[in-house]
Amino acid sequence: MNSAERRGTKRWDDDHYSRLARQRGYRSRSAFKLLDIQRRTRLLRPGGTVLDIGAAPGGFSQVVAELIGSAGLVVALDRQPIAPLLGVRVLQIDMNDPSALDRIRAVLDARQVDVLLCDAAPALSGVAAVDEAACDVLVECALALAAALCAPSAQLLLKLFQGRGGDAQVQSLRSCCQRLRCLRTSSSRSASREFYVHATGLSLKRLSALPRMV
Questions:
Q1: Structural domains in the chain?
Q2: Where in the sequence numbering do the catalytic residues fall?
Q3: pTM of the shown model
Q4: pLDDT at 2
């Protein structure tokens, strides 16, 4: 193990939410981000249909499955493999794959999505312009899926990053929904630039008309 790996392991060991995640059987500390947001927004309801984008290793999906119950459906998507989760349908899929939409529809089995979650983050290069563009692509892929799969009453929860790209995404989303809240979770690392947007009252027509980079 090199010095960078040792530092990363120490941060994991010393982090309160990481220790708590292990104690409670969650796969990642991100579970507590969603639990915090749920407490503030009542985003997830029993029996709902939820699409979880960028789901690996499964922290968000575990929380979703607990909250929507056996009558609901959670579909977890990621390019990386996700080990099986009780109550979760897992798809290892690239959102840019032309067959992605049809594969997701097949799993949904004619159900419309009530809540679309995107906690995805790109592998960061350290070059701000490159990283912002990569974040934009992920969000735009998520919005394209929302326009195609969501019910008119659906809600969105998307992770963005502070900066010009995140600000531009917020402004675009404001034109497509009746209400938008920007949320910072108590379990986000203090140095992180991440924040979440919670959008309700969607206009799917306007959402589908947003410009895409991909």
A1: 29-208 (3.40.50.150)
A2: 159
A3: 0.88
A4: 40
